[in-house]
Specification:
Helices cover 38% and strands 24% of the residues. The chain has 14 helices and 25 strands.
Length: 479
């Protein structure tokens, strides 16, 4: 019999209103388990539990918080291979990528275990004699966390860890597609010594529990990572309810290749940026902007490198790219390949569904040429292993094309010129810039976020997380 996995509400595992199978995209006959689908009533119970726990947790000792987060991080790191295997089996990342993501989650919790002890304030003199001023940070309250399917343990970690570190209580709703990693993380948290009600897990569809979480009067703030459409709607709902909101909503990231770039390096970082993790990263480069002189050599080298990529079961040794995460996503990816061709692009590599020993959602990475900035393939986020090349004359045109997008999350440049690298870092309209590196891959202790339609609100990760998860208080004392 398939194992059932329940929601965690007020320190108790609570049966779902129904259950949904969690299916391995590498092998559609492999069911990881049946995971609870929460109801709106379950969501309300979780929020009420978090509200009840907040007064004590918000003023609890920082050493106890630090110890709990460190314990969580230690267990995640000790179980990184097990959790990485679960991730690969559930979401479709290769095993190496899954283990790496699990390790990142563990390191995030350990980082914020330290941040519990480093939250600083200020003591200032008043302009009025005999009066002292203190500026301190306090927790926001009950925070709703809504996470996507593409990083099912790292993104929850970088939201949950700072929320708890700064004294907030959490209601966590993971993506319905990847409940397994969320449940495993919740189970570890449940044994960390954190009091009942401080952390709650509610699994299920956004249409059932997502909107009630965003609009619940007992929730003080919402942190969301996902699509631009859903993020925009959440922003409007939070504005009406005067709630603090933090949104990460994807990108259409450029990778510039200049004439003076090291060709081998440029090809490798482009392949990694565009196609690794099956292109299912908000920081993936789907627009390769290539200058004239290097273009023919770059295109030939890209096709050769792409031909060597191995697509297959995420848990299999030697695999470069796993399956697309779901049938819906696969159909979307394939449709964009066709849309690009309908608009005049030329498909020079990949772009078709692949058959493997196990039935799964496999796709050959696609490369399109002869594209322009006005094509949908260069304006809309595909979120799959699909990249297009935009050919330009030189650096100035490349920079203009890189910035010619409604998004602004990550941007990269491949060049041996210090002049161009320095100029690009300053003038790229992105929140994160990479020089001679893949556009995907941000350390866990530095700020993550973008500009334009990619992000809204304060940055995630590192010490910058305190901007969202705390509120500032100014206190005066007459001596």
């Amino acid at each position: 019999m398939t194992q059932k996995f329940d929601n965690l509400i007020n320190g108790t595992w609570v049966a779902g209103a129904s259950y949904s199978p969690n299916i391995n995209p590498s092998n559609l006959s492999d069911v990881l388990g049946d995971y609870a689908q929460a109801s709106a009533e379950h969501l309300d119970s979780a929020v009420q539990a978090a509200r009840a726990a907040f007064p004590a947790w918000s003023v609890s000792g920082i050493q106890a918080r630090s110890d709990a987060l460190d314990k969580i991080g230690t267990e995640i790191l000790a179980r990184r291979e097990e959790l990485g295997t679960l991730l690969a089996r559930e979401e479709g990342k290769t095993l190496a990528e899954g283990i790496g993501e699990a390790a990142r989650a563990g390191n995030i919790f350990k980082f914020f275990a330290g941040e519990c002890l480093r939250l600083a304030g200020e003591t200032l003199p008043s302009v009025r004699p005999g009066i002292g001023v203190e500026v301190t940070r306090e927790p926001m309250g009950v925070v709703g966390l809504i996470t996507p399917w593409n990083f099912p343990i790292a993104i929850p970690a970088w939201k949950i860890a700072p929320a708890l570190a700064y004294g907030n209580c959490v209601v966590f709703k993971p993506a319905d597609l990847v409940p397994g990693c969320a449940w495993a993380l919740a189970e570890i948290i449940s044994r960390s010594g954190i009091p009942a009600g401080v952390f709650n897990l509610v699994m299920g569809r956004g249409s059932v529990i997502g909107d009630p979480l965003v609009n619940h009067p007992g929730v003080d703030a919402i942190s969301f990572t996902g699509s631009q459409g859903v993020g925009g709607r959440i922003a409007q709902q939070c504005a009406v309810n005067l709630k603090k909101v933090q949104l990460e909503m994807g990108g259409k990231n450029p990778q510039v290749i200049l004439d003076d770039a090291d060709l081998a390096q440029a090809v490798e970082l482009s392949v990694q940026s565009a196609f690794f993790s099956t292109g299912q990263r908000c920081t993936a480069s789907s627009r390769l902007i290539v200058t004239d002189a290097i273009y023919p050599r770059f295109l030939d080298a890209m096709k050769t490198r792409m031909a060597s990529l191995k697509v297959g079961d995420a848990q299999q040794a030697g695999i470069d790219i796993g399956p697309v995460s779901s049938l819906t996503q696969l159909e979307q990816d394939l449709s964009y390949v066709q849309i690009g061709q309908d608009e005049g692009a030329v498909l020079v590599a990949g772009g078709e569904r692949l058959a493997r020993d196990n039935e799964g959602f496999y796709m050959a990475p696609a490369l399109l040429t002869e594209t322009t900035a006005t094509m949908r393939i260069n304006r809309e986020e595909v979120f799959g292993p699909v990249a297009s090349i935009i050919r330009v004359k030189g650096y100035e045109e490349a920079l203009a094309e890189a910035n010619n997008t409604p998004f602004g999350l990550s941007a990269g440049i491949a060049t041996t010129s210090l002049k161009y690298a320095t100029h690009f870092k300053r003038h790229s309209q992105a929140g994160m810039v990479m020089v001679n590196l893949p556009t995907a891959g941000v350390d866990y202790h530095v700020p993550f976020g973008g500009r334009k339609s990619s992000s809204y609100g304060s940055r995630e990760q590192g010490k910058y997380a305190q901007e969202f998860f705390t509120t500032v208080k100014t206190a005066y004392t007459l001596s």
